[in-house]
Amino acid sequence: MKNSTHPLAPAEIAVKAIPDDERVWVPQAPDVWFRPLMLNTLAGQWCNLLRVRKSGILSRHLHPNPVHGFVLKGRWKYLEHEWTAETGSYVFEPPGEIHTLWVPEDTEEMITFFNITGCMYYLNDKDEHVGFEDVFKKIDMCRKHYSEVGLGADYLDQFIR
């Protein structure tokens, strides 16, 4: 059976989530990378793995839509909450909540799957908007990185829907 869905439906994606090739990880900040899994341009959604190999504050931000996360390795927390997300934890982030992602010093590496729709609004300590990321910024970051590391800009096409 070639395809069990409607002929106009996009193709499935089935990839090894944690790649063997380090070049697949896209740098986002010093010691912070993401690995795209699906970039949905019609819904403004992206699914990725976030990998962090440093401790401290990563970012202060909010989302206008819900976010779902699943911790594959390590631990992290939002400074605004008592809970800590550890390996195996599921996290639901309600829309509009401001939170500051923090990785503890005893965590050598954190990898979390995130499913995000809409964007991330980055905020300073006065809750003023200082930047944002959406699916199109993610695509641009990936294309640039994949071109620079020899995978080719079109390597990303397999994840775009």
Description:
There is one protein chain. With 161 residues, this protein is mainly beta. The two termini are 22 Å apart. It is 9% helix and 43% strand. The longest helix has 14 residues, at 135-148. The chain has one helix and twelve strands. The chain has one helix at 135-148; strands at 26-29, 32-40, 45-52, 56-62, 67-73, 75-78, 84-86, 90-93, 99-103, 110-117, 119-123, 129-134. Strands 1-2-3-10-5-8 form a six-stranded antiparallel beta sheet, with helices on one face. A six-stranded antiparallel beta sheet has the order 7-6-9-4-11-12.
Question: Which key terms come to mind for this protein?
Answer:
12 strands, six-stranded antiparallel β-sheet, 1 helix, mainly beta
Structural class: mainly beta
| Strand segment count | 12
Strand content: 35-45%
What is the gyration radius calculated from CA atoms?
16 Å
List the helices and strands and how they pair.
Elements: E1 26-29, E2 32-40, E3 45-52, E4 56-62, E5 67-73, E6 75-78, E7 84-86, E8 90-93, E9 99-103, E10 110-117, E11 119-123, E12 129-134, H1 135-148
Antiparallel strand pairs: 1-2, 2-3, 3-10, 4-9, 4-11, 5-8, 5-10, 6-7, 6-9, 11-12
How would you concisely characterize the structure shown here?
This protein is mostly beta strands. Helix content is 9%, strand content 43%.
